[in-house]
Design goal:
mainly beta, two-stranded antiparallel sheet, 1 helix, 28% strand, extended
Length: 95
């Protein structure tokens, strides 16, 4: 939580078992998003591990939306076509 002069501001993140708040049947039917499975079947008593890489950055002045996100040469490129603004994110860990 961060204090700002006119009050308090809070930020939160949620990591869930599926990418959207949709019924499980719809997620199974969706199957893949961006060439990545949106669900996995696990046998009973099995284990799975997942890694997340999070970026938290202030967007450039005038950037109001995200039209494209892509990975190029280990960098995450975020574009707003309307404003012509681009945000390039470099990770200290491999992507």
């Amino acid at each position: 939580m961060q204090y700002i002069p006119n009050g308090w501001s809070g930020r939160g993140l949620e990591f869930a078992i599926q990418p959207f708040d949709l019924p499980r049947r719809e997620m199974v039917e969706l199957n893949r998003m961006f060439d990545t499975p949106v669900y996995r079947w696990l046998p009973a008593k099995s284990k799975i591990a997942t890694r997340f890489l999070l970026f938290y950055v202030k967007s450039p002045e005038g950037m109001t939306r995200v039209d494209d996100v892509r990975l190029e040469n280990g960098k995450l490129i975020v574009e707003d076509h309307a404003s012509g603004k681009t945000l390039t994110l470099v990770s200290s860990l491999p992507l």
